[in-house]
Design a protein that fits this description.
mainly alpha, 86% helix
Length: 217
Amino acid sequence: MGLPVTLFSGFFAFINLLMGRISSIFGGLIGLMTLTAGGQIEGLAWNTSQGFSTGLSAFVAQNYAAKKKSRILRAYRSGLIITTVFGLLLTLLFVFFGGEVFSFFVPGQTAFEAGQLFLRIEGYTMLFMMLEITIQGVFFGAGRTLPPALISSLFNLLRIPLAILLAKNGMGLAGIWWAISLTSLLKGLTAFIWFQAIKKRMLQFESPESGNIIPNR
């Protein structure tokens, strides 16, 4: 059960190293600095989401074992509402004040301009990044570790050719940031659609003795 999670976590780290290489090729020190510092600032989103994901994973696992469908769905909806509100707030912060936020940690006009571009582009998809990570917790709690691993690995891998393609076609560093942003959007949408598609079947519990469906409360 833990193997897909282990593999996609290691794969994600490897992809990030390659994205750093691409950023350095097209943007030199500024590109690498922006990716590194910007990624840490983005931690406001993914660290928060990871906290909700971990909490959801434990809560869902407990109620999945107890066959409490309604409690799982209430937790899922509550998690989505909270992360949606927080994601929208971060979108506003990064899109309209990204330069100020970035230059607070990395001072200088160059850092302001580079960070403003990075956080504005990334800010458009904060909600979807948080959506993906939050839904991971529901999958993990139900013992379905493969779907999040496939979603993350596939779209993270897509970042490499997409970043190179966009950067080479006149977009430069902005193309790399758009590659990261667009794949985050796709990951969030895919995770949401996948869960909605299997939700009813995944939460349809049966009695081990009779094979009858157990009423979910």
